[in-house]
Structure prediction request, 140 residues.
Amino acid sequence: MLRLLTFIFLISLSADGWAQKSLAWPVLGMTTYDQDPNSGQFFPKFPSILESQFEGEEVIIAGYLIPIDVEANTYALSKNPFSSCFFCGNAGPETAIQLKFAKDPGRFATDKYLPIKGVLRLNRNGSGLFFTLTQASIAG
Prediction:
């Protein structure tokens, strides 16, 4: 009986280690930023919850796929559809995530709403989007 309980305990620990964390847009929205008046470049200030609980972790978040360069399979995930996304000037930089797919995901229609999982990276250097999901794939 003790072996069975130990086995169940170890399985539950390993299952928690493999599960991705659910990430919500309001958490990303807690990111503030300064903008350089000369270059227009954004410099993010990430909330501690992102740095301590999500950075470097596998997360899952749903949003609208926005093609950046279809030939290079470069996409972003947006909180908003294309007509009101960051790239159209209708939202802030905290509403978009760069996606780096683990393998070629194929083609997607603009504004396809999908859950995506990947490892969250925070971009502190002011170039590119604030957030990147590496090893990204469609969840589900």
